[in-house]
Amino acid sequence: MKKLILGICGSPRKQATDYVLKEALDQMEEKGYETEFFGVRGKEIGACRHCDYCLRKKECFLKDDMYKLYELLGKAQGIIIASPMYNGGISAQTKAIMDRCRALGAADYDFLRGKIGMGISVGGDRAGGQELALQQIHTYYILNGIIPVSGGSFGANLGACFWSQDTLKGVQEDKEGFRGLKKTVDMFARYLERYNPVRHEP
Ligand SMILES: Cc1cc2nc3c(=O)[nH]c(=O)nc-3n(C[C@H](O)[C@H](O)[C@H](O)COP(=O)(O)O)c2cc1C
After folding, report:
1. Tens digits of per-residue pLDDT, 100-154?
2. Using CA atoms, how far apart are residues 84 and 39, in angstroms rounded to an integer?
3. How far apart are CA 22 and CA 188, in angstroms?
């Protein structure tokens, strides 16, 4: 069975972040992986209310589109989180997804443990917080037992950073961004082969 890579897009628009994440998933398909795209656009994903329902009942109180994502997170061996920059960091939508994963940990402490993760950040400015956003993504991975992967030095130190200039055309012209993306995707695939993470159903 092919390993499943889940791409999570934290932009509410079908523009730059959507485009580069799909490019990353295409590259993974070329390497022989199955891929699934999940975007926040048009979805209902509420922010965590810290009601602690998940700690008591082992599931989230909010019955919204996050349940579809919970299922995909269980099946995926590799996770790619892609976020636009909002005020120098990840979007609120991306953060809501991360926080809502508390319910997964409450139900099964090891639910995400051992999966492999990489990040993509897209800013309108060339230096608009992309590396901070990747650190936020990696921190989420570490907290949840996901192994964070970068593309290494000389272009992808923490992962893939893009400069969109606030347009789709801008991101499509960002050659350095795509070079960093390829380096990160290549390293991501190497880790997926080496560590062979398990797939499990929720
Ligand atoms: C509320 C808001 C805050 C933003 N803050 C930043 C920022 O701090 N740094 C930056 O580089 N771009 C910032 N941008 C621009 C977006 O990151 C940029 O247009 C990006 O390409 C959007 O991704 P998308 O095309 O996938 O929607 C901001 C956009 C919005 C709507």
Report:
1. 999 999 999 999 999 999 999 999 999 999 999 999 999 999 999 999 999 999 9
2. 12
3. 15
| Prediction pTM value | 0.97
Which residues line ligand 1 at a C-beta cut-off of 6 Å?
11, 13, 15-18, 84-88, 122-125, 128-129, 164, 166
Which ligand 1 atom minimizes the distance to the CA of 17? 26
CA distances from 186 to 49, 77, 109, 197 (A): 38, 16, 29, 17
Give the chain's domains with CATH numbers.
4-195 (3.40.50.360)
Mean of all residue pLDDT scores within the chain:
96
Helix, strand and coil content of the chain, in percent to the nearest 5, comes to: 40, 20, 40
Query: Ligand 1 centroid vs 85 CA: distance in angstroms?
Result: 5
Give 90 Cα–ligand 1 centroid separation in angstroms.
9
Q: What is the pLDDT of residue 3?
A: 93
